[in-house]
Design a protein that fits this description.
The protein is an all-alpha fold. The chain has a single domain (68-308), classed as Glycerol uptake facilitator protein (Up-down Bundle). 66% of the residues lie in helices and 0% in strands. The chain is globular, with a radius of gyration of 35 Å. Mean pLDDT is 77; it is low at 8-20, 24-28 and 42-52.
Amino acid sequence: MATKKPKSSAKTSSKSKSTTKPKTAANTAVKPVSEAPKTNPVEKVETVETTENKSIFKGFFSKKYEEKESILTIFKKPKFYGSLLGEALGTMLIALALFALSTWSIAYASWFVVALIAIYIAVYAFSGACLNPIVTVGMMASRRMSVIRGVMYIIAEIVGAWLGWLIFNGFHVAAGESAMEVVSMTAVGENQFWVFAMLELLGACIIAFFYARALKYKRSVFTFGAVAAGGVLLAILVGYIASAGFFQLNNNFIFNPAVALMMQIFPTAGENFGEIMGGVCQALSIYVLLPMVGGAIGFCLSDFAGKLSAEE
């Protein structure tokens, strides 16, 4: 009797041969990339908060002007001379307005601010309409302007104030009058130095702070002029109320060192050379040095507030 051979081994071998396919690029499975270890979300938030706290004042004194200006390159640009001309003309117009309204009142202050807005709008396209060494020093201190440009701006502003004085004085000379009697400032008494100095310092801080805020609206020239001139109006009101209301003084603030050179420093007189130099040094401290310090403080306060509020 014939025995049958088992077919299981043959079938399994044939099935194994048929099921095994050659490895190709399409068939090879890509191994998943090992994921990064998961971190605790609480720890992640803490790290973000610490980095944010550390970077609040990062770049506070970093350079904010884009052009690489130096004494060798800045004078080669025709646009720079247009900026200097704009600063001189704008400061000349402001000086004329200040000389004409040398006796301050609320009505005169409002008229002056309207004229100031028009001057800002007219000159802004040329130089940014600093038109005041207080603002120029604040721009340099906050690194919004290079030192060489700032120094040339201040020189142009002094020249503009001098031209305004010549024009104003020329009209009075033609009329047989003395312009110094019209724009004469209140003399600084023995115990009034710090009163005059603090008024100039406070007014300069207000003007610089408002100008720094106005730069945020530089795309709208009218808004820029209104905000910057509003700061000047507020400084005049504070100076007028403090001097006339509390100290019974009048016409003892200028808030523009370039104009102060023509109104308070150059006309200094005295019986001898020592008295003249003492008056000049006193006037320079009150009307030039402290206002420029106030300009730097005002711009730094604006940047400090912007950093705290995370303003871009």
